[in-house]
């Protein structure tokens, strides 16, 4: 059976796209490698931007200007204008479907100030904003009877002889069987690639760039892959995220001497570099929220207290929180136009795997949840429209036959342990393709990645069972990560000048 | 330090040299350094995605929030099909949300939420769907069709939300295999990593049900004979 719109990924972007495509009258199927409620969106804490002016005066124009400034000339003004203008509608829609936004004393949606914003603009639900948005979207999908298949892993996208999309080759993780899911159009909403930094990332272990790698394999263009956002406040030992709202609510950054060294509410790239400089100079860096008081912390930052206690054994009510800057969000991705269409006919993309040119070289806090709703909807609508109007979607389904990676894998020799290499790549990228980049080090990293790609046949999986083989899934993820690494490092080499998150030093 | 993990057929003991580590860190180390065939689920490592719930010494925990002790015995969740090792199939458990209709059915445009209203169900909307409560619930031993703790908490979330214009529909939905089938044993509350009490939510739903004219069918059965003579 052919679905009109196949959606790969069930985070905030994928579920929004699914609802929009169904609303437009298309048949929809959603595939996810986990479960919808486990996707990266659930980890977003700080909030979702919309110039509502509920707390103090604000305007859409200011939101646009703040976003453009932070993007360092790499954003498309039309796309930014569209996203920021749609923001109040997006919040209204989420409120209407039941998201529990925090409220002001007079019953308006509360807003807090995040870095780089000229006004309190981020609508939030305590520090569980992403979780509550994601779960509400999931519930909405249940209400609308959207077909969702859990634990299905994207191996490859399928194309016709004319290069247009016709579906996806999927590994059913539970059964170990291959599945062909044919569709007239496909929306990729498969998330970012921060896990190439392995343990130097705040992200879920699932953010391995699978969709980006698969799209690139069928010729989709990638854009801005060098722009990796480092979040200033990852916990020192575990890289677990302490939300930007901690600084938004008045938290300070201190070095070992107890000195403040940066404006805590500057954009993330600046703050991350300042932290990195301190660490390179031998200082430890801490987040200090003690002055906010126990009652305030428990009401507004409950997760942060819990995580600091668990992973660093410090109580933020009376202790400093040790932190470092770690990979958090990847601005680069599959290039799409304002309708979320990629360079491959019938393939659309939204969310962190896509580059809608709204974040440019540095994303503002609060703009990622906004993006997934606004462009998730756009991608769903456009994909549905494509199936109704584009002749290519009506061409006969003649999928090109290609040998898939799983077949090749059977001959891999297993001499080299890929888990070891995975953490090696994380170290390598954090040091050489990280917060500060030097051409000589980028070249070294490029060589290393090249070598690892050549060595892939010497790696492979030890576990040969069919059912729920995570050893296999993790190896295919690793292969995708190497492809993504290659794209990141070559994009970084091409951009000679510093720009936002891509900071070049001599050497 | 030794821990035992339930594999497909038996418990296997692993020796790990790690101090003050979370269970998830220990399991990851076993997977990447000792036994790549070990299957488990995980994601965020920060107690918000709900992937890594499992049982330690017969109690449900999130592996990313539990510090390992020597001699711990680790098993998959109960009341759900085990796919492999510590991985369970959550589809059946999640389907209770659909049966219970845990969503905003009819939006009430007039409703204006206040700061206080926000608090009535902020806790319920903290649910991460880890399934710990579902696993700990003893009702499933006798009634597979029970809607269960997290779904009923989800219903309370919407019933108590002023934005829901038709809460009575939700109350009607949960009369069968719902609020009256709970034994109020409180096991769900004891294991919830988010400190949600489904038991308390179910009690509130019972009260709302009574106010809507529904009564406990067990009660009706026991005393129903009285009117027939």
Automatic annotation (TrEMBL), chain A:
User: Which Pfam family is an annotated match for this chain, by its short name?
Assistant: FAD_binding_2
Q: Where is the FAD-dependent oxidoreductase 2 FAD-binding domain?
A: 4-369
Write out the entry's keywords from A to Z. Answer: Flavoprotein, Oxidoreductase
Q: Active-site positions, per UniProt?
A: 268 (proton acceptor)
User: What is any one of the record's Gene Ontology cellular component terms?
Assistant: plasma membrane
Report the GO molecular function annotations.
Answer: electron transfer activity; flavin adenine dinucleotide binding; succinate dehydrogenase activity
Q: Please list the GO biological process terms of this entry.
A: anaerobic respiration
- Segments crossing the lipid bilayer: none
Note the InterPro entries from the entry. FAD-dep_OxRdtase_2_FAD-bd, FAD/NAD-bd_sf, Fum_R/Succ_DH_flav-like_C_sf, Fum_Rdtase/Succ_DH_flav-like_C, SdhA/FrdA/AprA, Succ_DH/fumarate_Rdtase_cat_sf
The Fumarate reductase/succinate dehydrogenase flavoprotein-like C-terminal domain sits at 425-503
- CC cofactor: FAD
Which top-level group of life is the source organism from? Answer: Bacteria
Please identify the protein, giving its name as recorded. FAD-binding protein
TrEMBL record, chain B:
- Provide the alphabetized UniProt keywords: 2Fe-2S, 3Fe-4S, 4Fe-4S, Iron, Iron-sulfur, Metal-binding, Oxidoreductase, Tricarboxylic acid cycle
Kindly state which reaction or reactions the protein catalyses. a menaquinone + succinate = a menaquinol + fumarate
- Which GO biological-process labels does this protein carry? respiratory electron transport chain; tricarboxylic acid cycle
- UniProt cofactor(s): [3Fe-4S] cluster; [2Fe-2S] cluster; [4Fe-4S] cluster
Classification via Gene3D superfamilies: 3.10.20.30, Alpha-helical ferredoxin
> Which first-to-last residue range defines the signal peptide?
none
Q: Which GO terms describe its molecular function?
A: 2 iron, 2 sulfur cluster binding; 3 iron, 4 sulfur cluster binding; 4 iron, 4 sulfur cluster binding; electron transfer activity; metal ion binding; succinate dehydrogenase (quinone) activity
Where is each 4Fe-4S ferredoxin-type domain found?
A: 118-147, 172-202
Q: Which residue windows are coiled coil? A: none
Q: Which InterPro entries match?
A: 2Fe-2S_ferredoxin-like_sf, 2Fe-2S_ferredoxin-type, 4Fe4S_Fe-S-bd, 4Fe4S_Fe_S_CS, Beta-grasp_dom_sf, Helical_ferredxn, SDH/FRD_Iron-Sulfur, Succ_DH/fum_Rdtase_Fe-S
Q: What is its EC number?
A: 1.3.5.1
Cofactor: record remark: Binds 1 [3Fe-4S] cluster.
Query: Pfam families annotated for this entry?
Result: Fer2_3, Fer4_8
Q: Which positions fall inside the 2Fe-2S ferredoxin-type domain? A: 1-80
The pathway this protein participates in, as annotated, is: Carbohydrate metabolism; tricarboxylic acid cycle; fumarate from succinate (bacterial route): step 1/1
Please verify whether the record's keywords include Iron.
yes
- What family does the database annotate? Belongs to the succinate dehydrogenase/fumarate reductase iron-sulfur protein family.
Name recorded for this polypeptide? Fumarate reductase iron-sulfur subunit
Organism of provenance: Sulfurimonas sediminis
